[in-house]
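Sample pair:
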Amino acid sequence: MDYRSCTLIPERGEPLEAQVSGRLMGRSKSLGNTVVVGDRVTFEIENERVLISDVLPRRNAFSRRASGERPEEQVVAANLDQVVLVCSIRRPPFRPGLADRVLSQAEHAGLPALLVLNKCDLDAEHEIESVLAAYALAGYRGLRVSALAGEGLEDVRAACRGRRSLFVGHSGVGKSTLLNALAPGLLLIAGGVNEKTGKGRHTTTAAWLLKAAPDLELIDTPGVRTFGLWGVGAADLERNYPDFLPHLGQCRFSDCRHAAEPGCALRAAAESGRLSPLRLASFLQLREELEREGARA
């Protein structure tokens, strides 16, 4: 039989190295989306080998579009309580397009999200507050943090306590440094930022569930440079912006694209301060990208 390995964390006792049979994985003969971090499984011991016998139904899952030409789902993690989006204000700079992709995917999965803005010690132009204010209008709680200086760590720890939290972020934003600070002793490898390109380097290569304390479960994921949405298209993207919902259906034209049409309720809300212009601009760009992706599919 064909087996693939993963680590099980029992409710009691030490972690176990377990294997998944090819029978459970089907024709793919690879772990794929069959067993992901956060899954609850049943297992049996056979000839001193721990075998996963079944995967219990998931109460939720956070996915993304897998890399490659063919559109395929990649389930990142399952059975979550929240998504923690880790960004930096500098080195690399905050990217609203990537942030809104992750937040939109969290909305699609029905998961609350927390925005952590790291490297606040590099915020010489005081941009963090304006970014946090923009996302506060959308209902997202935001925290200013410096993982290196130790600022804001207790706020992050308190926001994650009692919740299984999936940490997602662009490469180089300091996600591994933050997790090391939250749970000393993990010794996650922290990557740097390429001085020429300003882009981060991948350090984490797989998703890991880290039980930092009995009431603190943190899932580390590889840093991303792009994030492809799964299950969200250009036509329904606006429904995944919670700050847009009170204004949808209020435009003069029922087919308003919220770009240049007269009587647009979203643009009026952005001009009056009820909606962040940053979020509206990000939405328009993301919708255009999804339309191009749809045309290629």
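Residues 141 and 276 are 15 Å apart (CA to CA).
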